[in-house]
TrEMBL record:
The lineage of its organism: Bacteria, Bacillati, Actinomycetota, Actinomycetes, Geodermatophilales. The keyword Transmembrane helix applies. It holds the Pfam family DUF4235. This is DUF4235 domain-containing protein. The chain crosses the membrane at residues 49-72.
Amino acid sequence: MSKGAKLAYRPIGLVAGIAAGAVSGAVFKQVWKLVSDEEDAPSALQSEYPIWEIIVAAALQGAIFAATKAAIDRIGADTFTKLTGAWPGD
């Protein structure tokens, strides 16, 4: 792909990253409610939670973010390719 096409994709990739953060945050919040019956996940500095619960929450949040980001990135790349005929990666 040409350098110009990669440059043209950058704003789309940026918006996709922001969208992935917002979507994954909302999905994680709902999943955490189902798993723990609590409104919010514990943070690392909350002493009332055991370390295993903090680690599970962080791992789950990371996995949801990674999967959501990959899906949104791929949809963005596919859409860009359909519109321009050029794949934004590789």
